[in-house]
Amino acid sequence: MNHYKFKGILQNDGWHNDVTISTDKLGEISSISQTDKSQAIATKINGFAIPGFQNAHSHAFQYAMAGLAEVYDVSHTSDNFWSWRDAMYKLALNVNPDQMESIATMLYSEMIRHGYTNVAEFHYVHHDKNGDQYDNLSEMGSRMIAAAKNTGINITLIPIFYQKGGFGKEPAEGQKRFISPTIDAYLKLLESSAQACKYYSGANIGIGIHSMRGVDPLDISEIAKSGPQDIPFHIHISEQLKEIEDSLAYLGKRPVEWLLDNVSLNDRYHLVHATHLTHSETKGIAQCGANVVLCPTTEGNLGDGIFPLVDFQKAGGNWSIGTDSHIGINPLEELRLLDYGQRLITHNRDTFAKTDGDSGRFAIDMSLKSGRKAMNNFSVDYFKIGDFFNASIIDANSPLIATASDKNKASTIIYTADSAHQLGTIVNGKLLSFNGRHTRGEEIKLNFIKTLNELKNR
Questions:
Q1: pLDDT of amino acid 48
Q2: How far apart are the C-alpha atoms of 268 and 230, rounded to whole Å?
Q3: What pLDDT is attached to residue 186?
Q4: 172-217 tens-digit pLDDT
Q5: What SS3 state is found at 250?
Q6: Ramachandran sector of residue 324 (left: φ over 0; alpha: ψ -120 to 50; beta: rest)
Q7: Residue 242 pLDDT greater than 90, yes or no
């Protein structure tokens, strides 16, 4: 059992001060009290605990190329998503299972350091360097799970169905490690991945389609209809204008338009990016209860565009955040950039405040609840007896936070804090990061540096 006493915790009904949270040996909350006798033996933390952040979209291996795609040949006519993708393919073609695990381990330790307690790993590097299956179909996915276990983060492994090189096109050479040619091949990969999840109590499984261009649309419809119905369903969609142009040429419909017409979407669906939408598509996603996963630092880095968030929220839409290519890993940065992008195009400052007047509180609430759904967790309680104790701890000594009233505290955290104010992170009842250091940080870092030196990509 563990006992932690906090300066304050954020619950659904607001801030509660001088609270002790106790956990059982599994890391589930056994008590939440301001008077419990366990306060005498509790670890005292001068911080404010908010629910652990949910990272609803990750490509772990891409962390090894963070910052590299900003250097390019100026003789080329343009540098865009598609040229960035070529650089990403080069990395994907060369990383081996040990290196994949090392990269993911470093990344996940950094996620924990920044306050994430859960990650949805959108995983599509399945095969060996020749494009052949490993003896263990989920070899690479198993390395993601091992990385999560090594760091302590909770993982939802989403093995991705990737079949095509574009609408009606065979896959390219750079995609050979990703490909499951048929629905049956993908379902076998999914089953192998689900079995791998059983080796770590913090792991579970989701289903994923790379994109409308990456899988035959009829197969997407079939997987949605006949595949597992009790796990999350993730898909990249409408990220780039070229994707929409190609979809119109091939299907006669835009990607989201086609999906709304051919798949019975509900709140287990998570549409990643969905950058370029018509008004009817925006409203359609919201009305069917599907969620959108937004990755502002990556979307900004790739020049994707800006999601129509204000209209989506007006229609009742729900969203979460992810770090995608990991050019940024700080959830506070993701939330601020998401808000500020909207302020720049609407010329208003109330993107998040329209619900209850508190932008910071709304950002925490929305990203938490929709993010949890991405992990197949439909709990809406911030901290509840019987739930695993997952928390991001903000330093109560930070001058702006220390002087903020309860009314202003959530927004002060979201809009002024950075990684220096991240005092610690608790995952499943364990304090895994404190004062900017993961408990295994040095060992993980040295192995990661060794891996990148082997790859020689930096």
A1: 98
A2: 8
A3: 98
A4: 998 999 999 999 999 999 999 999 999 999 999 999 999 999 999 9
A5: helix
A6: left
A7: yes
Provide the 10 A C-beta neighbour count for residue 336: 20
Question: How far lies 223's CA from each of 204, 209, 229, 373, in Å?
Answer: 19, 9, 10, 20
Backbone phi, then psi, for 274, in 5-degree steps?
Answer: 45, 40
Choose the catalytic residue: 59, 210, 234, 324. 324
Tell me 383's DSSP state. S
Strand partners, 388: 28
3-state DSSP assignment of residue 442 = helix
User: Whose structure tokens read 């050019």?
Assistant: 327
Structure tokens, 354: 């329209």
Mean pLDDT of the chain: 95
Confidence of residue 78 (pLDDT cuts 50, 70, 90): low
Instruction: Read off the tokens for 188.
Output: 């076998």
Catalytic residue of the set 3, 123, 273, 421: 273
What single letter denotes the amino acid at residue 132? D
Domain ranges of the chain: 2-51+381-440, 53-374
Fold classification of 53-374 is: TIM Barrel (3.20.20)
Beta strands 116-123 and 269-273: pairing type? Answer: unpaired
Q: Read off the pLDDT of each residue in 333-347 and give the average, rounded to a whole number.
A: 97
Task: Please check the confidence at residue 100 and state whether its pLDDT lies above 80.
Answer: yes
Could you tell me which of 126, 162, 326 has the C-alpha nearest to residue 236? 162
Mind giving me the DSSP string for 208-245? EE--TTTS-HHHHHHHHHHS-SSS-EEEEES-SHHHHH
**Domain 2-51+381-440 sits in CATH 2.60.40.1930:** no
Exposed/middle/buried for 188, CB within 10 Å: 0-12, 13-18, 19+?
A: middle
Q: How far is CA 60 from CA 147, 176, 237, 393, in A?
A: 10, 18, 19, 24
pLDDT category of residue 89 using cuts at 50, 70 and 90: confident
In angstroms, rounded to a whole number, what is the distance separating the alpha carbons of residues 321 and 323? 7
Could you tell me which residue, 291 or 75, shows the higher pLDDT? Answer: 291
273 is a catalytic site residue = yes
pLDDT digits (tens, 9 = 90+) for 17-72: 999 999 999 999 999 998 766 777 899 999 999 999 999 999 999 999 998 888 77
Query: Is 324 assigned a catalytic role?
Result: yes
> CA-to-CA distance for 351 and 401, rounded, in angstroms?
22
